[in-house]
Amino acid sequence: MINGTCVSYTNFCVSGNIYQGCVTCQARYQVVNGICRKLPDNCAFINLSLDCIQCASGYFLYNGVCYKTIANCLAQRASFCDRCDTLYVISNDQRSCISKQPIRYCQQHDSTFDFCLICEDGFRITTDKKCLAEHCSKYNLQTYVCQ
Description:
By secondary structure, the protein is mainly beta. The protein has strands at residues 13-17, 21-25, 29-32, 35-38, 43-46, 52-55, 59-62, 65-68, 73-77, 80-84, 88-90, 97-99, 106-109, 116-119, 123-125, 131-133. 0% of the residues lie in helices and 44% in strands. A two-stranded antiparallel sheet has the order 1-2. It has a two-stranded antiparallel sheet with strand order 3-4. The protein is rod-shaped.
């Protein structure tokens, strides 16, 4: 009996007593007022209102729901990434962070891999901080291949 009400504490309950009801629940359940309550998907803890307040490892809480953490994402909103770590770019669908590719023929990049500081021997830095063969006067803007 809890607060004057008979409560069965055997459903999903591992241990309990007549005074407190259930004290310990099976995995994926949590004691709330002496009763085992099922945790929402990927949730580690719920409050008295049964709202998730902490997610399981590898998940984060957004508007009461646990979403899988996107690797290398610095600003995540539900299943979408708004900002990636310095060496990553957001994928087209905003569901992942993709490693930035090094600039071709670059010997030394800036700290964010956005432009080249020093090109390999035989290459020069272009106005947009890419590397171009010294003998090349015209190149494809998409591939940076000499034409």
